[in-house]
Amino acid sequence: MNGAPGPRRTQVLALAAALSLACTYDGSGLGAQPDDLPQETSTSTTTGEPPATTIAPTTTTTGGPAETTEAAVTSTGLTTAEPTTTTTTTAGEPDTTGEPCATPEALYVDDDGDGFGDDGQPVTACAGPGFSPQAGDCDDADAAVFPGQPETCNVVDDDCDQSVDEFDPRSNIACGVCTYILAAGRLYAFCTGAHNWADARADCQLRGLDLAIDDDWLEHNLLVSYLAENSGQWYLGAQDGDGNQEGSWRWLDGSEVPKWDGRFAPNQPDDKGSGDGGADCLALVSKGKGNTQERWVDESCGALHKWICEGPPPP
Ligand SMILES: [Ca+2]
Ligand SMILES: [Ca+2]
Ligand SMILES: [Ca+2]
Ligand SMILES: [Ca+2]
């Protein structure tokens, strides 16, 4: 009998609960900042959320009629809603700007400030220095390297197109041992270095090209016209099978190399190379070299020669 609260004591408790509820509701719903606010709101204020955000969720939730149950929901809803909003915003502009913004965007880190971001570093952040909506910077530590930058002869892919020192009519018409020529709707590079066939091909590929395919007599004569007299053999993009299959000559695109239309020099191909057991790579001979001049010969693939690259012209 003594332990159980009397009816009067129960009433007092209920009244006290109702009063405290009313205070919570009024304080947040009206935006007033009396003594109640610091308790509930102080947490959200510290997180940097503007007052407007705090008001919105409270007003929505208090639409219901009931008191006691509703009150529990209200305070729960408030507490839950705040951190969620705050977390999203904070994640948006992490450690870089520190400034909150209304709408973080999908951007890329642009460390060198050249206007192009690093593909490998997408972020949700506020627009501003250090970020760019455009990806594509292949060197985000070099502000002179970005898409659209004129290509120059510097062993660097200046314009991020994955070709190094390729032809650029603005800034790169000759580079190293190679001179670029636009002719008959194709782009060629005539290279006067000394490479074996594989290295010659790799050099072309680095420039966004490949060893030239001498399709017909028209192209053949065009190529020959660019070779200096007595400049020797120039590798083309054709091989004879894989080592010992003499006779299966193919261009790099898989098409057959004709042995019947006179572009091979007399008695060629003869599979006679310089000591490595065959001659399985095709070369074009310049003017001035006996009966092989201006014709094809088969060469040992390890022999060092000049080379001709070919590819589509730049867009
Ligand atoms: Ca950049
Ligand atoms: Ca860059
Ligand atoms: Ca390039
Ligand atoms: Ca370059």
From TrEMBL:
Q: Which residues form the C-type lectin domain?
A: 183-310
Where in or outside the cell? Secreted
Question: Its domain of life?
Answer: Bacteria
This chain's source organism reads Nannocystis punicea
Which protein is depicted? C-type lectin domain-containing protein
Please give the InterPro entries that the UniProt record associates with this protein. C-type_lectin-like (IPR001304), C-type_lectin-like/link_sf (IPR016186), CLec_Tetranectin-domain (IPR051663), CTDL_fold (IPR016187), Put_metal-bd (IPR021655)
Where is composition skewed (Low complexity) in this entry? 40-100
Q: Which keywords does the record carry? A: Lectin, Secreted, Signal
Q: Where are the stretches annotated Disordered?
A: 28-104, 260-279
Q: Does the keyword Secreted apply?
A: yes
Coiled-coil annotated residue ranges, if any? none
Fetch the PROSITE patterns from UniProt.
C_TYPE_LECTIN_2
Mainly localized where? secreted
- Keyword Ribosomal protein assigned to the entry: answer is no
